[in-house]
Amino acid sequence: MSALPRLIATDLDGTLLRSDLSVSPRTRQALDAVRARGVFVVPVTARQPHGVKLIGQQAGFAEWALCSNGALAVHLGTGEVLFEALLGMEAQTALVHALLERVPDVVAVSIREAGEGFYAQADYAALASERDHKRDPRRMTALPLDEVLSSPSLKLALRHPTLTPADLLAEVRALELSGFHATHSGAPFVEVAAEGITKAAGLARLCAELGVAQADVLAFGDAPNDAEMLAWAGHGVAMANAHAEALAAADEVTLSNAEDGVAVVLERLLAAGEG
After folding, report:
1. 44 contact partners, CB below 8 Å, separation of at least 6
2. pLDDT confidence of residue 191
3. Least crowded by CB within 10 Å, which of 98, 105, 153, 187?
4. Which Pfam families does this chain map to (predicted)?
C-alpha cells in the first residue's frame, strides 16, 4: 500500500500497545496525523468496551470500536451499539458439556450486556489475573455452571488450569461441533463467539455502515484471532512479534509492537502522501 487508506483497523494487545499496555508518543502522533487526514481509526479487539476505554485517552479513541472479536460495534463517545451478535444458549451449552467430557476442569465465563456483564463460574477467579479481562479477580462472581450458561453470550471464555489456550482450542475443534466460532488471542483462554463471528466479519459490517470499501482498509494484528481480518483487509500488516497464523495471512510484516511497528507503516504512508 502506497497511499493512505480510508479506514485503519488495529488490534490492541501485542499490536498497537507496548508490553506495558501503553501507547507510545510516536504511535499516538502517527494516529493523530492520519485522523487529521480524514482517516477512520478503529480499534478491533478481543477486549470489551471498558477495556478499550482504559487506553482510549492514550490512543485518542473516541468513535467506533469493534469489541469482542468483532461481535460488538460500539461508539466510545456516545455508547451507541451499532450491532451485537450473541452466542445462543443451545450452542454454548452443548459445547461446554461436550468439552467437559473430553477435558475435565474446564471453567467458563459468559460476557453479556454489550460487554458490561461478566458471569464467571466458580474456580475461574483462581486462574485469572487482572490483566486477563481488565477486572480484579477478587471481584469476580462464583456461579454454578448452569447460571453461567443461562443466557446468550457476547463472548464465552473457556480456560483450563494446565492446558494452554492453543491446546484447549485444539480440543474444542476436535469435538467437531457447529454453531459457534472459537479462537484465541494470546490471552490465557479460548474465546467463543456466535457462528461466523470474526474480526473480519465485524469489520466488513462496520465498513458497510460507514461506506468504506474493502480495498480501502488497512489492518494491523499479531494473534490468531487477527488472521481473518488481515486476510480480508485491502492491505493486512502483521507485527514482527506475530503468531504464525497472522504472519501467513498478512501482506506485509512491520516491526514489533515494542518497536512502534504500527507507527512505522503510518509514517511511511503519510510521507508518501506528502510527496
Report:
1. 9, 10, 11, 65, 66, 70, 199, 202, 203, 219, 221, 229
2. 96
3. 105
4. Hydrolase_3 (PF08282)
- The per-residue DSSP string of 216-236 comes to GEEEEE-SGGGHHHHHHSSEE
Which long-range contacts does 121-128 make (Cβ < 8 Å, 24+ apart)?
Answer: 121/145, 121/148, 124/159, 127/159, 127/161, 127/188, 128/159
| Element housing 98 (H / E) | helix 89-102
Domain boundaries, the chain: 7-84+198-274, 89-194
* Model confidence pLDDT, tens digit, residues 50-84: 999 999 999 999 999 999 999 999 999 999 999 99
Q: What sign has the CA pseudo-torsion 48, 53, 59, 65?
A: positive
Q: Is the pTM of this model over 0.85?
A: yes
Collapsing DSSP states into helix, strand and coil, what is residue 171? helix
- Between CA 180 and CA 42 the distance in angstroms is 25
- In terms of phi and psi (left: phi > 0; alpha: psi -120 to 50; beta: otherwise), the region of 121 is beta
d(CA 147, CA 106): 15
275 has pLDDT over 60: no
Model pLDDT for residues 82-138, shown as the tens digit of each residue: 999 999 999 999 999 999 999 999 999 999 999 999 999 999 888 988 888 888 888
Which three three-digit cell numbers place residue 39? 482517516
Contact (CB, 8 A) for 247 and 219: no
Q: Domain spanning 89-194 has what CATH number?
A: 3.30.1240.10
